[in-house]
Specification:
The protein is an alpha+beta fold and 661 residues long. It folds into five domains: 3-62, Helix Hairpins (Orthogonal Bundle), CATH 1.10.287.610; 86-310, DNA ligase/mRNA capping enzyme (D-amino Acid Aminotransferase, Chain A, domain 1, 2-Layer Sandwich), CATH 3.30.470.30; 315-399, OB fold (Dihydrolipoamide Acetyltransferase, E2P) (Beta Barrel), CATH 2.40.50; 426-499, DNA polymerase, domain 1 (Orthogonal Bundle); 593-660, 3-Layer(aba) Sandwich (Rossmann fold). Helices cover 36% and strands 21% of the residues. It contains 24 helices and 23 strands. Strands 12, 13, 14, 15, 16, 17, 18 and 19 form an eight-stranded antiparallel beta sheet that branches. It has a five-stranded mixed beta sheet with strand order 2-11-10-3-9. Strands 5-4-7-8 form a four-stranded antiparallel beta sheet.
C-alpha cells in the first residue's frame, strides 16, 4: 500500500467508523454488529501504525492514548458554571412560576428535561475539534479530564462544522454496565459499587484513560453555553441543534405552556424513571425563550430562569416498637430499632440500625416514636428523623444498660469512641458469632454450614465447640427440623472436606484478638508450623514484620489460656494442619512489603491486598523501614506522613497496576 492509497483508505475508514459510532452511541440505532465495528477499527489502527504520519487527533484510534497522568491540571471556565436551585413539591414549582411571571410581566413557556443522575462535564470545541473537557469544580475552575472524556464514544471528537462552542452535559453509566462491573467485582471477591452516579464520577477522575475506556460511560449534552455563531432563540431549538451537531441529546424533553403541565410531566416521570437504563433524579425546568432567560438573569448562585424539580427520596413512616442490642463477634454492641414492618423502595423493612448511643441521642428516637424511614442509596434502611408532633407522652427513652445477658455480664463504652462492648469476651452471644466465623469463608470455609445451621446444631446441643462438628454422624442430624437426608449428606461431606485446613485459615478461625487474615498469614509464613506459634514468646512474635507489640501480646496470652489450649488440642485431634509453605511467585514485587492508606479509585482494599499477595508481595498494617511501598489513595491518613519521614516510596493505584502488570 502506497502512502496515497493509505491516506485514501484511512479517510474512508474514519468516515465509516464515525457514521456507525454515531448510530450506535448517539442515536442508539446500530446497523452493524460490534465485531464488525471492531474489525473496521483494527484495520484503521494497522494502517496508521504503518503510516504514523497520517494519524490525526480526531482519529477513532486516538480516543485512548497517552500514559496515565500524574495528576489533573486546572482549567478556568470561559462560561461560569451555575447550579440550579431545587424544587421538591408542586407548591415549590407554583411559586417558581409566579416569580418568573412577575419578573417578566408575562407568563412564559417552559422546557422540561430529565435530570440525569451523573457527573457534570463542560466540553470546549475549537474549529470543530474537541479541545478540552473539564469538571464543574467550583463553577469558575474545574479539572482537565480531556484524556478520559475522549474515551467516551458518545462524545464526538470533531463536529461536522469548523465552529467554536462550549457545551455542558452529564456523564453517566448505565445500570446494565454497573451490573456487569459488579459481576466482575464479585468474581474477584471485591465489593460491589453502590450506584451508577458514584462509579461514573469515580471513573471520570481516574488518572489512567485505559481504565475509563474499559467502562462504558455515556454522555447527554443539554446546554449550548457559547458559540461563534448566532445561538438558537429557544431551549428546544438549542437541543435540536445540539443533536444535529452530533451530540447525544436526551429525547425525552417536552415544551409545556403552564406550570400545571410541568407538574404533570414530573409526576409521569416519577413512575417511568426506573424503566430507563440511566439514573434520573428529577426534572430540570427552563424558561423556553432565550430572550426571557437573558432578562431573568442570575442570582449569586443560580439562574433565575431554571430550577431542578427533584423526585422525592422514597421515604415512609413507621413506628419504633422496640430498641434491642446486638452483640458482634468482637463484642461490639449495636443498637437496632425494631420497626412495624413497612414497604420501602420495593422491600419490607422491619429493622434499622441506630449505630451507637450518640446516634440515638442525635435523633432523639424513643420506643413508641413514629419515625421517617428511608433506604440510603436504595440499600440500607435508616431512620432519618422523628415526628415529635405525634408523640403521646407514652414513648420511652432508651438508655444503654450496665449489664447485658448476651455479654454474660457488664458492658462498657469504648474509651474515645461512640461504641459499647462486652467486658467479658466469652459470652454466649459472642461464642455464637465466633462459631459463625469459624465455619465461614475466611476460616474453615465449610459449605452448607451457615449461621442458620450453626444455630440448629447449638440449640439442639449437637455441638458444644468447634471440634464437635467433626464428630457429627448422620443419625445425629436426622432429628433436626427441616433437615432432610440430602441436607445431612451435604453437610457431612463438606465437613469431611475440611479435615485438612491451611495454617493461616486455622489461625484466623480461632478468633484470636487482633488476628485477622493478614496477621494469620504473617504468623504462618514466619513460623511454618502451628507448634512453633503456640510456643513462641511475645518477644519473638514481636519480631515479625507487621506484628506489633499489641498483636504479639494478644497472641501470646491467647495460647496460654487453659480453655484455649484445650480447644486447640481437641481440634487437632480431629483435623490436620500441614506445615505452611508459601507459594513462591516471581514478579516485580516478590517478597516486598506494602502498606495501604486512603481510598483507591477502582480497587477495594481487599482487592488490592489480594493482588499484592497473588504477585508474591506482603501486606503490613504499619509503615516501617522495611516497607517497600505505600499504596495511597484519596484521603490518606498518618501512614502517608510516616512514609515520607522514612523515605518509603509512595505509589498510586495506576503505578501499582503498572508494577504488577
Amino acid at each position: 500500500m502506497t502512502k496515497n492509497e493509505a491516506r485514501e483508505r484511512i479517510g474512508k475508514l474514519r468516515k465509516t467508523i464515525e457514521h456507525h459510532r454515531h448510530l450506535y452511541h448517539v442515536l442508539d440505532k446500530p446497523e452493524i454488529a460490534d465485531t464488525a465495528y471492531d474489525t473496521l477499527e483494527e484495520e484503521l489502527r494497522q494502517i496508521e501504525e504503518q503510516f504514523p504520519e497520517l494519524i490525526t487527533p480526531d482519529s477513532p484510534t486516538q480516543r485512548v492514548s497517552g500514559k496515565p497522568l500524574a495528576k489533573f491540571t486546572k482549567i478556568t471556565h470561559t462560561v461560569p458554571q451555575w447550579s440550579f436551585n431545587d424544587a421538591f413539591s408542586p407548591d415549590d414549582m407554583t411559586a417558581f412560576g409566579e416569580r418568573v411571571t412577575k419578573m417578566l410581566g408575562h407568563r412564559p413557556d417552559y422546557v422540561c428535561e430529565l435530570k440525569i443522575d451523573g457527573f457534570k462535564i463542560v466540553l470546549t470545541y475549537e474549529n470543530g475539534q474537541l479541545k478540552t473537557a473539564a469538571t464543574r469544580g467550583n463553577g469558575t475552575v474545574g479539572e482537565d479530564v480531556t484524556a478520559n472524556v475522549r474515551t467516551i464514544e458518545a462524545v464526538p471528537l470533531s463536529l461536522p462544522k469548523p465552529i467554536d462552542l462550549v457545551v455542558e452535559g452529564e456523564i453517566w453509566m448505565g445500570k446494565k454496565e454497573l451490573e456487569r462491573i459488579n459481576k466482575e467485582q464479585k468474581a474477584i471477591g471485591g465489593s460491589p459499587y453502590a450506584n451508577t452516579r458514584n462509579i461514573a464520577a469515580g471513573t471520570i477522575r481516574q488518572l489512567d484513560p485505559r481504565i475509563v475506556a474499559g467502562r462504558k460511560l455515556s454522555c447527554f449534552i443539554y446546554e449550548l453555553s457559547d458559540g461563534d455563531f448566532p445561538l438558537p432563540k429557544t431551549q428546544d431549538e438549542e437541543l435540536k441543534l445540539l443533536s444535529k451537531l452530533g451530540f447525544k441529546v436526551n429525547k425525552h424533553f417536552k415544551t409545556c405552556e403552564t406550570i400545571d403541565r410541568v407538574i404533570a410531566f414530573w409526576k409521569t416521570w416519577q413512575k417511568r424513571k426506573d424503566k430507563e437504563d440511566y439514573g434520573i433524579d428529577g426534572v430540570v425546568i427552563k424558561v423556553r425563550a432565550s430572550a426571557d432567560q437573558k432578562e431573568l438573569g442570575y442570582t449569586g448562585k443560580a439562574p433565575r430562569w431554571g430550577i431542578a424539580f427533584k423526585f422525592p427520596a422514597e421515604q415512609v413512616t413507621t413506628k419504633v416498637e422496640d430498641i434491642i442490642l446486638q452483640v458482634g463477634r468482637t463484642g461490639v454492641i449495636t443498637p437496632v430499632a425494631v420497626l412495624t414492618p413497612v414497604l420501602v423502595a420495593g422491600s419490607t423493612v422491619s429493622r434499622a440500625t441506630l449505630h451507637n448511643e450518640d446516634q440515638i441521642k442525635t435523633l432523639d428516637v424513643r420506643i413508641g416514636d413514629t419515625v421517617i424511614l428511608q433506604k440510603a442509596g436504595d440499600v440500607i434502611p435508616e431512620i432519618v428523623s422523628v415526628l415529635t408532633d405525634l408523640r403521646t407522652g407514652k414513648e420511652k427513652a432508651f438508655h444503654f444498660p450496665k449489664t447485658l445477658e448476651a455479654c454474660g455480664g457488664e458492658i462498657e463504652r469504648v474509651p474515645g469512641q461512640a461504641a459499647h462492648r462486652c467486658v467479658s469476651k466469652n459470652s454466649a452471644a459472642q461464642f455464637r458469632r465466633k462459631f459463625y466465623h469459624f465455619v465461614g469463608k475466611h476460616a474453615f470455609d465449610i459449605d452448607h454450614c451457615g449461621p442458620a445451621v450453626v444455630d440448629l446444631l447449638l440449640d439442639n446441643q449437637l455441638v458444644a465447640d468447634y471440634a464437635d462438628l467433626f464428630t457429627l454422624k448422620k443419625g445425629d442430624l436426622a432429628a433436626l427440623p427441616r433437615f432432610g437426608e440430602k441436607s445431612a449428606d451435604n453437610l457431612l461431606a463438606a465437613i469431611l472436606a475440611r479435615r485438612t485446613v491451611p495454617l493461616p485459615n486455622f489461625l484466623s478461625a480461632l478468633s484470636i484478638d487482633q488476628v485477622g487474615e493478614e496477621t494469620a498469614e504473617d504468623l504462618a509464613e514466619h513460623f511454618g508450623v502451628l507448634a512453633k506459634i503456640r510456643a513462641a514468646s511475645a518477644e519473638n512474635l514481636n519480631k515479625i514484620e507487621g506484628v506489633g507489640p499489641v498483636v504479639s501480646e494478644a497472641v501470646f496470652k491467647w495460647f496460654r489460656q487453659a480453655d484455649n489450649v484445650r480447644l486447640v488440642d481437641k481440634l487437632l485431634a480431629q483435623v490436620t494442619v500441614p506445615a505452611f509453605k508459601k507459594k513462591v511467585v516471581q514478579s516485580a514485587i516478590s517478597g516486598q512489603s506494602f502498606v495501604l492508606t486512603g481510598s483507591l479509585p477502582t480497587l477495594s482494599r481487599e482487592e488490592a491486598e489480594a493482588l499484592i499477595k497473588k504477585n508474591g508481595g506482603k501486606v503490613a498494617s504499619e509503615v516501617s523501614a522495611k516497607t517497600a511501598y505505600v499504596l495511597a489513595g484519596d484521603s490518606p491518613g498518618s501512614k502517608l506522613d510516616r512514609a515520607r519521614e522514612l523515605g518509603v516510596k509512595v505509589i498510586s493505584e495506576a503505578e501499582f497496576k503498572k508494577l504488577i502488570s
